[in-house]
Amino acid sequence: MWKKLRKYGRVVNALIGFLYDFKRFYLYSAWKADMQNKEIRNYHMVKVYHSLEKSLSFKRRNKESGWSTAKMVLELIKIADSTNDYGFHDKAGLSVLKKFINHPDNTGHEHAQKIKQEIKNLHWSSDDAHGTKHYKDNDLLRGKLINPEAFFLSRYSLREFKQEKVEALQIERAISLAMKTPSVCNRQAWHVYHSDNQESIRKALSYQQGNRGFGDEVPNLMIITSDLKAFMPGQEHYQHWIDGGLFSMSLIYAFHSLGIVSCCLNWSQSPSNDLKLRSTFNIRPNDTVIMMLAFGYPDKDNNVCVSARRPLEEIYTKLEMKDKAYS
């Protein structure tokens, strides 16, 4: 009897979690498409202007393509200009739009001339590089690892660390490296919360159920989140977890490349624990917690779990079309 109740209890807990996630998506995502909101507009702006970047990157281009997107970027730029409160992607969008209309294939187009008139008095575009750049095979070779197995297979989760804070410059360097992570339409909806304060770390870990036996000795802790404001369509209701997971993995390997060890701490928690964490710390309500990450420097000698990997044939299948039945 109790086994049956426990089994159905899992479904009930899942339903509670789904409803909590739906409520958060309803409250904090961008489904209302309020472009007066700078954060929402900037996430939407990058989604739109990234289409222009892709158009500019093609070697064989259709000179008539991209203009509807260019007009959408222009409308967002007008909204940004009316607010006189520009975000990073507002400025980037204006820069990309200028590159698009000034491309040799486009500069003589009637739409290009109209857009030039619309933006001729705007001078708040970004100084950073946007649009496209040449990328040769030598550029790829510069990042090629001589022994990738040595890098990837030497990474283990450590649960015991030196009681030493990781320098701020190293943390910032790792985050900067992880920022190269791909994200849907290049929206980069990640946010990282970090503490090396022992009281804060222990309190945060008290809501996480996988740090027993070593949580009291964690010298550095990150809470990695993803911003729901970046996602507008209903079909993107899972995307913040996907993008957040990609960024988390990049950050783990960025730390590994710097000689900093880490241990992933999942946040598959109840709505109650999620709310307790939020009531205790300065996590923005629109940020979804993806995971926690304990990290630090290793001792000279360490014990790690072997964590054997499944055989390749169990996880790798060639994708093939199913046979179609013809009537």
Overview of the structural elements:
The chain is an alpha+beta fold. The chain has two domains: 89 residues; 151 residues, NADH Oxidase (3-Layer(aba) Sandwich). 46% of the residues lie in helices and 9% in strands. The protein is built from twelve helices and four strands, in the order H-H-H-H-H-H-H-H-E-H-E-H-E-H-E-H. Strands 1-2-4-3 form a four-stranded antiparallel beta sheet. The longest helix is centred in the N-terminal third of the chain and has 27 residues. The model has no long low-confidence stretch (mean pLDDT 94).
Task: Please sum up the structure shown.
Helices cover 46% and strands 9% of the residues. The chain is an alpha+beta fold and 327 residues long.
Helices and strands in order, then pairings?
Blueprint: H1 2-28, H2 38-57, H3 67-83, H4 88-101, H5 110-119, H6 137-142, H7 148-152, H8 168-178, E1 190-195, H9 198-205, E2 220-227, H10 239-257, E3 261-266, H11 271-280, E4 287-296, H12 312-315
Antiparallel strand pairs: 1-2, 2-4, 3-4
Structural class: alpha+beta
What's the CATH topology label of the largest domain? Answer: NADH Oxidase
CATH architecture of the largest domain: 3-Layer(aba) Sandwich
Q: Residue ranges: pLDDT <50 for 5 or more in a row?
A: none
What overall form do the CA principal axes indicate? globular
How many whole angstroms does the radius of gyration measure? 24 Å
Q: Biggest sheet: strands, sense, closure?
A: 4 strands, antiparallel
Tally of distinct domains: 2
Please, what is the CATH homologous superfamily of the largest domain?
NADH Oxidase
How are helices and strands ordered from N to C? HHHHHHHHEHEHEHEH
